[in-house]
Every structure is written in structure tokens, then in C-alpha cells.
Write a sequence for this structure.
């Protein structure tokens, strides 16, 4: 019998089996985050005074990667902190790629604001997102979705299927702002126009959770410029499977080095019922 390390990767994988693994991997990352210790943050600046990495980001990503690699050693993993891993060895050209954000909402985590999570998503060679999980330990919420299987939320252990926003008045738009000062200034200037049809705006500090909270109806729509793939990978699928219309930016593949900063800063991610989305943004199912 051929060992798991020697077996070629399956050309296709059922979304349900990938979802099961994504849940396990996200739980491993969230368990690291749940051990938050203000004295052991080890926070360091990355691109700006607002962009941070902590010891928990790194430990959570290692935990996520370990779970995935133990079960599917031939799959590709791209993560926010540890880059892209393409395992050596034979395969049939149909490997799954995992997009991992071990700690979305790092500034919140540092400040002990509860909106942070581990995000894990799986995509095939055709660019179809098959499974995604967003696990928020401080909120005690786990969001998940598989392609064609709907989106779901476990909130303090109570599970329900998600069906998107239903608000008739007082609609809330979620957004975020870039670490790049010039882009941030432009985003602030555009905010008034984006708010047409909405009663107010929320900026929670985690794009993954923003997208999930559109899926569960807490928020009515989400728009943000400049996200990385790992920021929206799982949340966009969860929103989409709830019936929300989602626009994912057409970013350069992570296997080709990913987008340049200019490409990323020009790209918009949006989610919400079609008639709720900002009029000057296109949105469609991929």
C-alpha cells in the first residue's frame, strides 16, 4: 500500500471533505488565538504604524498549516505570514490550494477588541472556491460554507443556516481603510457617496468577519479597496453561499507572486444584495 506521503493528490476533492478539514485547521488557529496573553504578544510593525504582526499570528499560521499538511501533504498553502508552500513530488496537476489568514484583525487582537478570527479557504485549479471557515474565538462564533452547501453559523454552539441581510430600514454598510495613507485619504473622501441608501457605516477591523456578518444579516453590505486574497477568501464564499451577491477582485495569482501593491490597492471587494451595493461598483457571482 502506498503511504499518504507518496500518494498523488486527487484531481478533485469534494467540497464537504475540504470543509471538514478547513474546520479542523481553523479551529487549530483559533485555539492559539484563544490563549491571548498581553505579556506575550511580541508585536512588530510590518508596513506601517497600523500594520502589525504578533507571535500569535505566526503560531496560529503554523498550527493551521500543520493540520492541512498532515491530512493533504501535496496541497499548496498560501498564508499571510509564511508565504506560499508548494510541496515537492509528483502530482496530477489538480492540487487544492489553501488560502490562510491566521489572524485577521491583528490590531483588534493587540488592543483586546473581540473582532478577530482565523480564516481558512480552499480553491481548485480553476479558481473555484470550494470551502471556507472563519473562526472567531473571542466571539465564540464559527462561520462556514462549502460550494453548493449553503453557509452556516455556530454561535455559542447554536447552529443556523444563513440567508443574508433582510433589513428594510437603517441599513448598515461595512468598510475598512488601507494602511497606505494616500489610499486611505481617497477612501475617506469616497465614503459619503458610498453611503447612499444606507443609514450608517461600521468599521470593525476584520474584512473576513465583515463578510460573514453580511451573510448572517448583521450588516447589509460590505465594500473595501485594497484587500489581499487571504482577507476575503473564506468570508466571500460564506457570503455568497448565503445568497449575497459577491464581487471578488481579479488579483494576480499567489502562485505567480500575487498582485503588486498598486494592483491590490486599486482592487475592490464588495458583497451585499444587488440593490444594496454601491451604484458605482459592479458585483456579480464569479
Amino acid at each position: 500500500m502506498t503511504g499518504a506521503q507518496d500518494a498523488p493528490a486527487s484531481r478533485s476533492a469534494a467540497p464537504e471533505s475540504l470543509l471538514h478539514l478547513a474546520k479542523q485547521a481553523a479551529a487549530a488557529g483559533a485555539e492559539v488565538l484563544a490563549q491571548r496573553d498581553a505579556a506575550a504578544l511580541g508585536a512588530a510593525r510590518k508596513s506601517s504604524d497600523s500594520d502589525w504582526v504578533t507571535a500569535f499570528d505566526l503560531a496560529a499560521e503554523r498550527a493551521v498549516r500543520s493540520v492541512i499538511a498532515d491530512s493533504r501533504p501535496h496541497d499548496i498553502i498560501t498564508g499571510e505570514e509564511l508565504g506560499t508552500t508548494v510541496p515537492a513530488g509528483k502530482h496530477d496537476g489538480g492540487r487544492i490550494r489553501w488560502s490562510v489568514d491566521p489572524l485577521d484583525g491583528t490590531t483588534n487582537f493587540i488592543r483586546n477588541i473581540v473582532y478577530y478570527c482565523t480564516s481558512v479557504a480552499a480553491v481548485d485549479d480553476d479558481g473555484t472556491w470550494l470551502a471556507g471557515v472563519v473562526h472567531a474565538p473571542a466571539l465564540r462564533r464559527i462561520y462556514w460554507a462549502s460550494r453548493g452547501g449553503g453557509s452556516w453559523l455556530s454561535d455559542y454552539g447554536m447552529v443556523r443556516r444563513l440567508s443574508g441581510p433582510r433589513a428594510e430600514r437603517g441599513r448598515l454598510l461595512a468598510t475598512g481603510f488601507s494602511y497606505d495613507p494616500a489610499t486611505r485619504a481617497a477612501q475617506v473622501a469616497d465614503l459619503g457617496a458610498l453611503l447612499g441608501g444606507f443609514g450608517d457605516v461600521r468599521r470593525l477591523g476584520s474584512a473576513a468577519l465583515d463578510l460573514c456578518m453580511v451573510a448572517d444579516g448583521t450588516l447589509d453590505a460590505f465594500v473595501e479597496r485594497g484587500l489581499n486574497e487571504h482577507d476575503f477568501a473564506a468570508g466571500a464564499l460564506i457570503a455568497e453561499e448565503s445568497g449575497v451577491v459577491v464581487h471578488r477582485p481579479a488579483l494576480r495569482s499567489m502562485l505567480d507572486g500575487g498582485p503588486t501593491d498598486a494592483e491590490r490597492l486599486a482592487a475592490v471587494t464588495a458583497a451585499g444584495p444587488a440593490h444594496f451595493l454601491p451604484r458605482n461598483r459592479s458585483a456579480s457571482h464569479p
Residues 1-11, 278-286 have pLDDT under 50 and may be disordered. The chain has seven helices and 15 strands. The first helix runs from residue 15 to 33. Residues 114 and 286 are 31 Å apart (CA to CA).
